[in-house]
Design a protein that fits this description.
The protein is of the alpha/beta class. The chain has ten helices and nine strands. Strand 8 (260-265) and strand 9 (267-272) form a beta hairpin. The termini are far apart.
Amino acid sequence: MIQKQTGGREHEHTHVSFEETQRVDGHVQTVAPAAFHLHEHSGHAKGSAQAAREGAAVALAGVCAGYFGRDVLDEVSFEVDPGEFVGIIGPNGAGKSTLLKVILGLLPVQCGSVLVFGQPPSPAVRRHIGYVPQSEAINWSFPVTVRDVVLMGTFGRLGLGRRPGPAERAAADQAIRQVGMSDYAHVQISRLSGGQQQRVFVARALVQQPRLMLLDEPIAGVDATTQHAIFTLLEDLKTRGTTILATTHDLSCVAEWFDRVLALNHRVVAYGPPGAVLTRDTLSATFGSHLLVEPAAPAPA
């Protein structure tokens, strides 16, 4: 496994605001799906006591997890430092979304251990995590406005039975401004473009004031300008100390934005700085021979 890189990285790219973005165009990235597999857990301890390095924001040790008796994650181990921006790449079915659900505590592990800021995942820990799911996992026909969706991000901190008050509404409006959607605050989400819908769910995560952001394919189906706007916002959060993990199929953005990259195909294929992970051998081991890498889009002027 590639060793971790210490220290931050300087980025050379153009920052754009959400106000400069335009309507979404199609975006396609072709990869081969990974195959599910069965895995014996004999000899593996659930909740293994492998010690995480002190101060890690996220730490997985020997994690196996999956669905209906099929393992999707197979002895996955890695750590993320506070304030890091980590990209997760791999083919369809390789376990990227499953990994985020394990970190959230929405999917139990069959063996190994997961720690988030030194604690096992729990409802209390999830209050400090902002989560942006894949767009296809959302019912866009549900009759709610942009503001309604963003206010939902305050429910975790409020607790059962409490309704958002003036402070929560002000925080929601601020998050909506951050993603450039103030003009659409009272528009039903089904009437938005794909890129606009994605921004709304980023705002819902932001309103939680999270210490950790987990984003599942945040730039899928959006144009190059919107991609830059989303990543600019995430990088700004990173500079303020937020830890960010994002899955992506778009390898053209990986070297430009991420501090470290996790190449995943059920197991960890490689983990390290982009320059060390994005090699022909590693990409072949991760994706197989069915990989189309599009050249990086030029930064908007």
